[in-house]
What does this fold into?
Amino acid sequence: MDEDVLTTLKILIIGESGVGKSSLLLRFTDDTFDPELAATIGVDFKVKTISVDGNKAKLAIWDTAGQERFRTLTPSYYRGAQGVILVYDVTRRDTFVKLDNWLNELETYCTRNDIVNMLVGNKIDKENREVDRSEGLKFARKHSMLFIEASAKTCDGVQCAFEELVEKIIQTPGLWESENQNKGVKLSHREEGHGGGACGGYCSVL
Amino acid sequence: MAGDSEPESEVFELTDFTTASEWERFISRVEEVLNDWKLIGNSLGKPLEKGIYTSGTWEEKSDEILFADFKFSITHHYLVQESTDKEGNDEMLEDAIPQSMQDLLCMNNDFPPRAHCLVRWYGLREFVVIAPAANSDAVLSESKCNLLLSSVSIALGNTGCQVPLFVQIHHKWRRMYVGECQGPGVRTDFEMVHLRKVPNQYTHLSGLLDIFKSKIGCPLTPLPPVSITIRFTYVLQDWQQYFWPQQPPDIDALVGGEVGGLEFGKLPFGACEDPISELHLATTWPHLTEGIIVDNDVYSDLDPIQAPHWSVRVRKADNPQCLLGDFVTEFFKVCRRKESADEILGRSTFEEEGREITDITHALSKLTEPAPVPIHKLSVSNMVHTAKKKIRKHRGIEESPLNNDVLNTILLYLFPDAASEKPLDGTSSADNNPSSESEEYNLYNQFKSAPSDSLTYKLALCLCMINFYHGGLKGVAHLWQEFVLEMRFRWENNFLIPGLASGPPDLRCCLLHQKLQMLNCCIERKKARDEGRKTSTSNNVTNTYPGDAGKHGDQLGPDNLKDVDKEKGEVGKSWDSWSDSEEEFFECLSDTEELKGNGQESGKKGGLKEMANLKPEGRLHQHGKLTLLHNGEPLYIPVTQEPAPMTEDLLEEQSEVLAKLGTSAEGAHLRARMQSACLLSDMESFKAANPGCSLEDFVRWYSPRDYIEEEVIDEKGNTVLKGELSARMKIPSNMWVEAWETAKPIPARRQRRLFDDTREAEKVLHYLAIQKPADLARHLLPCVIHAAVLKVKEEENLENISSVKKIIKQIISHSSKVLHFPNPEDKKLEEIIHQITNVEALIARARSLKAKFGTEKCEQEEEKEDLERFVNCLLEQPEVVVAGAGRGHAGRIIHKLFVNAQRLTESSDEAATMSPPEEELKRMGSLEERRQNSVSDFPPPAGRELILRTTVPRPAPYSRALPQRMYSVLTKEDFRLAGAFSSDTSFF
It folds into this structure.
C-alpha cells in the first residue's frame, strides 16, 4: 500500500486554543466539519497520503492543544517535524498577537532549522473579522513563512494549504531525503582508486 | 523487408565481414570510438592562453576495446574549452595543419605544474591514449608495438581524425608512449626514448641540440633557428636550521598538581613531524636562441641565480601524523569495539551494588539528621577509593587501568563542586567559555552534541584523552564506571550534577546529555521532596506529604506577579505550613504579606458555607481579579505538578504508542484519555485551591477562550456581563466535563506523582551502567567532533588562512547534516574526521612555511605582506612564481636556504673524505661533482628539462615547413627524450 510513497512527513499544527486547528485537520483528512469538536487534550494524530506533483507523500499530522498549560507538554512533539502549520483566528486579534510567542516556541524546541513554516488565518467565513489579510501577509513575509487564509467550515484554502506545504518540503531536499536514505539498505560503493598506475596518472614535476 | 527496387544490386554489393581478422576488428572498433566521441576532422581551437593548462579544467572519457581477448582502455584527455564558432575557420580548414601540431610550438604553457605527462612533454591540449586496461598488463614485444602503432595509423587515416593517438607500450611505470597525428598531407610521429642511465654526451644542451638536428635531418642550410626553453629544478630537503617546533604534549604535566584538570579540557593540536618535506625551486629560461648560451660538458652559462624566471613548489609530507586527527580517530575506533565494560575490566563491578549502597546509606542518614545546614562535602577521593578497591578486588593484583592521580584529576575536572565548599547549585562556572549567544557556543545545536561548558562535553574530552594517553579502552571503561558510580552517589545523596543546564532534557543535545539532565531533574525533585519532608517533620506538623511538591510556579493567563503584589495575595494556612521550606521557589510572597493574608483569611473563613467548608489547599497565588462564579471568592491558581520531563527516546516511545492508537474516533478518544492525567491532576489541584469552584471557573483559568462573555441587558436595563462555556465545552460528557466530574479536591503534593522520579532515575542509571565503551563513544562522538572543530577554528584564527576558513565552514555544514540523524554511517563519520585532519595538516603546513620563510622576522610591513601572500599561495597552488626571481625578496630567502643547506652538505662531505679512495675517484669523475664545484650555492639540479622547437620542411627541402619539437628530461635515474617530428606526406 505504501510502496509508491516517496516519503513520510511529520507535520505539526500549532496555535492558540480555539482557533480551529483540529477543525482544519478534520476538514483536510475527512473533509467534514464538526462545529462541536471537543477541545484537544495533549496531542492528537492523523494520517493522510496526498499526491503533489506526482509525488506521493504520507503525512503524519500532529494536532496539538492550544491551552497554555499544555504548552509545557507539546513542544516535545516538535522534534523531527518537517513542516509546521501555525494557525490563528482572523476574528480574534489576540490569537494573532500571540503568534510571536509561538514562533519563539518553535525556535526553541525545533531540532532543525530548515523546517518549513506556514501561517494559516482561519475562520474567514465569519463576518466579524478582526485581522486583515494584509497583516497576516506581512507577518508571514517577515518570518519567511507560507501564508494562506482558510476556512475549515467552508473548506476554503484547506486542501491548498496542505499541498503547498508538502510541495515546499519536497522542494527542500535536505529536509526529507537523508532521513529516508538512512532507512533503506545501502551498499557501500567506494570509488575505485583513481588512476592507480604510473601511466594514466597525472605526473607532477619530475 | 527492403524495398522492391534494385534488390539485385544490393545482393551484388554484399560485403562479407565474417572472415575479418581480430586485427581488423580492433581497428574498426577504434574507429567506432573515435566517431562516437566526434573526434573526426579538424576543429581549430583558440590559441592557448598563458597558463590555461593549469587554470583550465581537464576532463577525460574512457571506453574499453578488445584486441582478441586482450583488453585495452581507450581514453580521450582534453582541456575543456568554450566551443568556438567554426565558421570563421572554414576557408582555412583545407590547408590548415592540425591543432595539435600547432600546439607543439606554443610557448604559453611550458612546464604546467599539474598535467598529464603527455601534456608536459608535447604541449598538447587534447589526445587519445590506448593502453592495456589492466595495470599489470604491458605490450612488450617490438612486433606487437608495431602492430598497435599501425592500427592507430590506419584508424586515423580511415576516419580523418586529427587528434593525436598514442599507444602505451612497455610496463606502465615507464610511461612509454608512441603515437601519431595525421592531417591533410601532413603527419607527426611521436617517438620516445627512455633510459635508466644518461649517456654522457646528452647531459647538456649542445649534445641534445645535436640529436635534435640529426633527427630532423633538415636538408636546408643554414638550419632555421632552434628555440630553446630550459628548466632546472633544485630540491631542498635539509631544513636543519629550522627545527620542527611541535612537541608531544607533556603527559606528566597533566597530573602534576598545578596545571591539573584544566589541561583535560584542551585538545592537542599540530603535526608531529614537519609537514613540509621538500622545497622545489624551478629556474626557467623560457626563450633562448641557439648560440646565445653555452652549455656543454665543460662549461655552462646556466646559473640559477641569473635565471629570468623562478617558481617554487613545496612537497607536503604524505599524511603527516597530526595530534588532533589521531586523537579523534582513536576515539572513533572505540565505536567499533564490541566488548562491554565488564569484559574489558574483568568481571562485573556492578554486581555488588547492594553492599555498596549500605555504605552510601550511611552517608544518607548523616545527611537526613536534623542538622541546620547539611554539609555539602563530597569527597571525590573517598568515592574513588571505594570504587578502586572494588575493581581491584575483582581483578586481583592487576593494576587498575587508570592511576589514582589521573583519575582524581579527571573527576575534579568533571565535578569541580566536589572539591569546593560552595553549595551545589547545579550550574557550572562558565569561566572562559564563549558567551552563550555566540555562534560557536551554539554549535552543539547543529552537531547535536552538548554545550561546550557542559559535563557531557567535558566527559567526552576526558574519555578521548584517556583513550589516547592513559590506558586506552580499559581506561575508558574504568572512567565510565567511575562516572556511573558518581551518578548513583549523587542520586542517592541528593547532590545535583554540575555542568548541566537545569530544566527538562534539551532535545537538541545528544541522548547521553539528555539522560544526565533527566537524572538531574529526578535528583532535583527528590531533593525538594526530601527537604520538604524533613522540614515538615521538624516543624511538628502532623500531616506529612509524601506526594510531589511541585515547586515551580505556573504563570498562567493574563496575570503575573505584579498582580499578586497589588492584590496582596492571601495564602491558605496549610500552604503556609509547608511553604517555608519551599519559599525560595515562590518569591512572589513576602513574609509580611503572608502574615497579613493569614489573618484575613482566617477571619473570612468562618463565614464560608457548603462545600467550601473544605480548607483551601495548595494555592500558588491569586488569579488577577477573577472571583469564583458561585461564591465570589477570589480565584486562586493552584500549585500544580510539573509535567514529566522526557528524553528523546522516551518521547519517541510515547509518540509511537500514541500514533499506534490509529486515527479512528476510538483511537483519538483513547489518546486523549491517556494524556488527560495532567488535566485531571490540574483540576484536582484547582478544586483543592478553590473550594466551591465550578468547571467554568477552571476553564476561565485554564482555557480562557472557552469561556465566552457577552454583554447583555438584564431586566432592569443594565448591561451586565454574562458568561458561559463555549459550545465545545458544553458537549455532554466530553473529556473535560468527564475529568471535572471525577476530579477530587486534592492538592498537587498529595496526588499521585505524574512523574515517578525514583523509577526514572533508576532507569537512567541502569541505562548508563549498561553502556559499552563503544556505545559511549558513539554517544559522545558528536561532542568530540564539536570540540575538534572548535579547536581547528581557534588555531586557524591565529594564522588567518582564507582557504581553511572556507573548509571549516564546509565541515560544519557537512557534519551538521550527518550528525543530525540517528546512527550516522561510519563512512560519513570517517570522512568528517578525515576533513578535520586535513585542515589540521594545512594549518601545520602554514606554520611550518611561515617559520621557514621567517615571515615574523620580516621588518618592513610591505615585504611582510608580500611574503605572507607568497606563503599562502604555496599552500594553495601547485606552483608559485617567485616575483623578481633570484633578486626578489622571497628569492633571496630561498637562495639563502639553499646556501645554508649546501654548507651543511659540504661539511659532511669533508667528513666523508675518509671513504675508500676508489669511490672517491669515481665521485670526482662524475659530472655531478664537477658541477657542484662550480656552482656552490646550489646543489646539482635534481631535474633538467629542455624543450627544443623549430619549424622546418621535412623530409625534402621542397616539403612544407612543419613544427618539430623535442622534449628531454634528465634526473638522477631517468633520462627521457620525447620527440614529435612532423613530415609532409604529399611532397617528399
Q: What stands out?
A: Residues 158-171 of chain A form the longest helix (14 residues).
